[in-house]
Structures are given as C-alpha cells and as structure tokens.
Amino acid sequence: MEPILRIHDVVKKFGEVVALDHCSFEIEPGTITGLIGPNGAGKTTLFNLITGVLEPDHGHIYLKGEKITGKKPYEIARRGVGRTYQIIRVFPKMTLLENLIVVGRGMERRLIERAMGLLRFVKLDEKRNDYASDLSFGQQKLLSLAQVLMPDPQLVLLDEPAAGINPTLQNDLMALIHQLNEEGKTFIIVEHDMNVIMNHCQNAIALNYGQKIAEGSCSVIQKDERLLEHYFGR
Amino acid sequence: MINFVEIFIRGLMLGSVYALVGMGLTLVWGVVGIVNIAHGEFVMLGAYFAFWVFSLLHLNPLLSVVFSIPVFYFAGMMIHKRVTERLVKEQELSALILTFGMSILIWNLAQFFWTNTYRSVAYLTGNFPFMGLVFARSKTVSFGLAVGITAALFLFLKYSKWGKAIRATSQNSEVALVCGINTIKMRALTFGMGIGLAGAAGAIVSLQWVIFPQMGGSYISKAFAIVVLGGLGNIHGALAGGLIIGILEAIVTQYLSAKMAQIIPSVTILIILLLRPTGLFKK
Amino acid sequence: MKNRIWFGIAILMIFLISVPFVASDYWVTLLTLILIFTVYAAGWNLFSGLTGYTNFGLAWFIGVSGYVSSLLIADYGLYWLFAWPIGATFTSFVSIGVGYILLRIKGVYFAISMVALTEGTRELFGTEYLSPMTHGGKGVPFVAGISLSTLYWAILLLAVITLVLCYKITSSKFGLRLLAIREDEQAAETLGIHTTKDKIIAFVLSAFLVGLAGAIHFTYQNYIDPSFAFSIHLTLTPIVMTLFGGVGTVFGPVIGATLFTFIHEILWAELTLLYMAIFGGILMTLILFFPQGLLGWMKERGILPRIRKI
To answer: Is there a contact between C193 and A85 if contact means CB atoms under 8 Å apart?
Structure first.
C-alpha cells in the first residue's frame, strides 16, 4: 500500500546549523508513529517542513504519493494534514465554537453540527460559547485536538500532546487518539515521555542532530543500544 | 561640469547629520522597543534650542551643539520615565500611535508659540576651499561636529559599562534581560541618548538650514529609511545608512530635481522591506 | 427587543434623510463630514480591526481615489455619478497589487510600508514629471455641479451600506477567518485557511469603500492638492475615531466619528491654533488610559454586553 507520507533525503539548514540532515522515512496509513529524540534533534522542524511552514533546502516530501514540497501551508492542510503545536495555538479571543467553525469548509449549518459533535467528543460542548482564553491548559489541548480534527484530516501530527497534563487526562487523550486511529486516521506523535511512546505507538522514529538514527517497531527500538546511548547517555 | 567627487562629499555632509538622527532612532527602537514617531520633532526642538540660545544669550552656536546633548539627554530620560516606559510591554503599534500623538502635540505647540516664520542662525558664513572644490563653511563645520559626536558615541558604546550593556541588549534582549541588564534605568538612559542625538543633530542643522515647526517631518522619514536600511537596532548600520541616504539625495537632487529627491526615503523603505527586511548590514 | 432596535433605526434614518429639508446648511455640512469620516473609520476598521494589520496608509486610498475622481470631473467634465465609482474602482484595482505585495510584511513594518507608500505617492504627485496630469503641488479647484443636499444623501447612503456590510461581515465566516488571521496567522494557515486571499479581499473592500468616500470628500471640498489628499491627518483621524469608539466593533467607528467631529467643531471654533496640539494630546491620553476604546471600556464595566458584533 502507498505510504501516506514519504520523506525523501530532506535537508534543512538555518545558517550554519543543520537542523535536518538527509532524513528519509515512510509512514504507512493507519499507524501511530512516535517521533523521538532530544531537544534540537529536528522534530519540530520536520513538522514545519511537512506542513509547508518551511521549505526544505534539499529533498522532497510526498503526501499520498503527491509531491508537496514547496506547497503553501493552506494547500497542504486542505490535502488532509492536521497539526498541533507544542505551545498551544488556538484562537484566544474567539469562542470554542468559533474556533472550530472558522477552520471548517462548507455550509454553516452543517459546520455547526460537526463542531458540536467534536466538542462533545472532547467533552467541551458545554463551554461552546466561552472564549478559548478562558479554558484551562488541559482544556485548551483538547480544544486544539478538536480544532485540528474539524477539516477531517487523514494525517495528524501531534507535537507533545501529553506534555503538561495530568495522567488521567493523558489517558483520556490517548484513548481519543486510539479511537480515531481505529477509524483510519494516521498519527505521528512527538513525545519526550517514553512511556507514552511505548504504550501507544506501533512504530517509532528516532532523530538526533537532524539525522534518523533508528526506525522500526517500538519493541525493537526499546532494545536498540545506540539509541539508548544517544538518548539517555548524553 | 559637475564633479562627482563634489556630489559625493556633499552627500557625505548631508548624510552625516542624517546618520545622527538615524542612530538615535535605531537605538531607541532596537534597545527600548519603542518606535518614536516624534523623533523628528526633537530634531526640530534641537534647532530651535540653538536658535534661541544664539538669539537671546548670544552663545556661540558650536557650543550650543555641545550643550544640546545633555539638555536633550535629560529631557529624553524624563519623557521616557513619564510617558513611554509604560508602553514597553505593549505591542509596538501602541507606541507608534502614542508617539504620533506626541509628534502632533510638539510641532503644533512649536507653531503656536514660535509661529511659522523661518528662522536661521547666521553665524558661519563664507566658503571653504578644499582641493579645488568649494564648500560652505557652515556645512563643513557641521560635518566636523557630526563626525565628532559620532566618534564619541562609538567610543561610549565600545568602552563604557553602559555602552556595553546597550550593545548586549540590542543584540539579544532576552539574554540581556536574564543577565539583569535591561532595566528601567537602562531603557531611560538609552531613550535619553536617542533624544540627545536628535537634539544635537537639530542644533547642527540650525547652522546650515532654515528652522520652522514642521521641519521634523522630513527628518523622521529619512530616519525610518535609515533604520530600515541599516537593520533594526544596528548602530553601525544606521551610520552607513545615513551616509547612503545623504549621498542618494545629493545625486538625485543634482541629476533629477530636489522634489524627486523627496521620494528617496519612501522608495528606500518599500524596496528594503520587500527585498531584505532585516536591512543591508549584518550585526 | 429586536423590534425596538429596528424601530429606533427607522426613526434615525427618517431623521437623517430629512435633515436637508428642515435644517440649515451648517448642520448638513456637519453631518456630511461626520458621515465621510464614519465611512473612513468603518472602512479602516473592516480591514485593520479584524485582521490586525494596522493600515497606516488610509490616506493613500483616499488620495488616489480622490485624485482620479476629481481630475475626471475637473479636466474631463465627467459627471460626478460616474467619476466617483471610477475613482474608487481604480483604487481597488491598484490595491490588489499593493495588497499582494505589501501584505507579506508583518506587524509594525507593514504599518511603516503603508506610510512610505503614502508619502512617496504624495511627493510623486507633486513632482514636475507628473504635473501635466496631476497639476503638481498647486492643487486643483473645481466644481462638480452637485447640490449640497444631493451630496449629503449620497454619503448617507454610502455610510449605511458600509455599516450594513461591516455588520454582515463581522457575523460571517469570512469575518471569523479575518479574526483568526489576527489571532494567529500561521496557525490559521496550517489549519487550511487561505490567509493571503482573505487578507487581500478585506484590503480591497476597505480600499473601495474608503476610496468612494474620498471621492465624495474632495467633491465636497471643491479642491484637492497632494499635501491634503495624502496627509497623515487623513490616515490618523479615522484610526483615532475607531480607537476611541472601540476597534473591531461595528459601531465603534460611528461613535468615534460622531464624537470627534463634534469635538473638532468646538475646539476649532474656540481654539483654532491649538486644535491640533490638543488632538495630539487626546491621542496620547487614549493610548495611555483607554486602550480598549469607549465601547471596550463600557463592555468591561458591564454597561454593554460583550458581543463582538457591536
């Protein structure tokens, strides 16, 4: 089956610093893949390249077989890619309902139905007319998940979804992700918490200094010496 | 036959004063984070200062240039403490509008009190021959003063404790904050320096050109062009930018017209912002 | 409740339409100015209040449209009914290009670039090279063959249309997208919003409305010259009016325009020379003490409900 995402020999530099160094990998549809590595390894840069916020200096990115290198962010988003940020970026001075409606496409009535459905899914429907800035940190994370799901993307990139929230909420969040995964969505999750990765992801890709240093199923990665040394021995 | 060297030197002389104004603006903008639209008005006030001091006290205008520096420095510090410090945490646009208001307030008060009558400081007259070319004495002395002040500024920035703090802040304000450098006091000092430079530039201008309340307008345009050219907060860049603007103005005035030269700042700003928004020069 | 609002609006409209019949020219003139600046302020607010891109080049819209329209009337004898829309349309067309180029620049630099554009155009219009067409810096006096009453009704119609448009847009998805641009443009883009297109549409719409009001403004003045047509005063005043009334609201510009024009009248009559100085002082006070504007202040105190539409 055609991989939903293919990164081919991608290089990204910021001045002298090489953020991504000839990185290549493929993501199969319907999987949950963890993206791990120390700070500065290039994980967020990779997300920025996939979503079109940045352009690679070399190499290409393919989405469902189509080359998306150099396309604008909104074009890539409309082709079925959603992404959340490490620092939550919902629209603070808009209500929850508005936060969802604004990113939907189509007739307003249907959008409201869909938005309400998603708010119920993340258990925030009662707060639909509150401003996003009034929510707690964890609630904002749930809102950003609902928001990213609104245009019904097939590939969802989550940047540290479990960070900064209590374990109960973490489990709820990951349960939601599994539910969506069973419905067919593909996830790439950046996480520092190895428990989250090992318990919830089928595969993992490890980056360090912009290079892919390991790739494979989680059980294999767990035993990889080189990775453990790089990740824990620094 | 117009000698290109003559135009070039003329441009340098013009540019040396513009550079003072531009360096003042970039200091305040880059270090304090305030976009001071009223910066041009302080040039105007500097010119009037020199004029009144000359007319009423008969003080040598060259001395008034020197005196304008501390006068405007302290005035700038006071204004910062009372007015602009409050806006440091706000978005830049608030400072933009506030200083717009201040600019309108200042030049209209100047117009009210001193009227629109053109004034001038007729002190340095006559010409100064130099290598076969002839330059007005007022412009040559002005150039010398501008060079002197610039040199003093750079020495201060390089060797004094506060100067180093300012340079650190303009290069990386977050790190400077953590080191405890970027305090209210330092911001007030920098703002004062910016205004001091503007006032001194105005006093120098009074030696060469006529003085009137709305004169600040053309200086702020050029100052913006210089800041954009040189890169925000980049003082060396502002020096270079000032000279460039001066030379461009001399060339365009000579070969096209003085009116066409008025377009230079606007065109410069648009081109730089579109093509190289961080400015021509690296830090 | 809603019926009462409609009733009130109907009464207001009847009153405004009948003014030329019942009141002296002084009042018609005053209301004309209020309405012109209402459109300027609302037009500015439509773009800048919603997208967060502070447009400091409003005078560019006004000046370009004013010049095209006024020159068509003065030099080519075109009837005002055609000259005005042509002026506004020309400005809108050019602003597509201007928007496409300049809206890539963010924040305070965008504001500066629009000022630079306005200043540059003003100087350009004053040069010898363009003066065969623009009459250089001398200014163009002209008469358009329109009565004060007709002009008043024209600007009244434009103001009503503008406010209705602002209300509809603020409640629409398009308006929500513009707000998203203000809140977080990059996040909006990665969520699938075509921010460039939406920004430019809002920019061009603003240009058209403001330009049309500008054409009317100069016909009312029977005179145009570069230093007034492109003056920073024409950019700042509508912005201050909107700030005073409340940015991003529909009625903020209206309240601001009305109050400020009255204040201007009083100040001008009593303290002509100091008027501008006081204006500058008011501007400073506003920023320091009332950053949210009058409507925002009232909302915070609970005097008004916190609906974005108003």
So the answer is: no
